[in-house]
Amino acid sequence: FITAEVERMLKAGIIERAPIDADPEARTYPFASPVVIVGKKDGSRRFCVDYRKLNAITETNAYPLPIIDEIFSNIAKRGTPPKYFTALDLASGYWQVPMHPDHEHKTTFTCHLGLYYFKRLPFGLKNAPASFQSMMDTIFRDQIDQHMAVYIDDINVYSASFEEHL
Asked: Where would I find the Reverse transcriptase domain in this sequence (predicted)?
């Protein structure tokens, strides 16, 4: 399973093999984290990296996540209640966000195949949800609370008429 996931992420440009021979002193990877396999409710497995060591020393991004009850309350307060809803879940949403090259090494993970680091925002980093929410709020700022609600990588579009929904 790990081999297949690593190969899939390499092919997609999500991760790269961490260089280990260029400059041994500069390539110690003190943040290298282990891979863990987590079972999902449906019985399938999820490839995860245990970033607890890195997260423990990471300064917290205080950007707020939306409160679900407030999202529903805002929708209910609309003059005309919405009749049409579309729910979108961004597949591997975090992977749409490139890592800053100066910080890629911090995402290094280790497995039986060697050391790799993420070129795209990985799941499991302490500030990933806040950073992603901030980005989504910026992108959709003119639509949020008008006819759209965004919670991290879930987008819900709502409208009172079919014409408006289009």
From this structure: 19-166
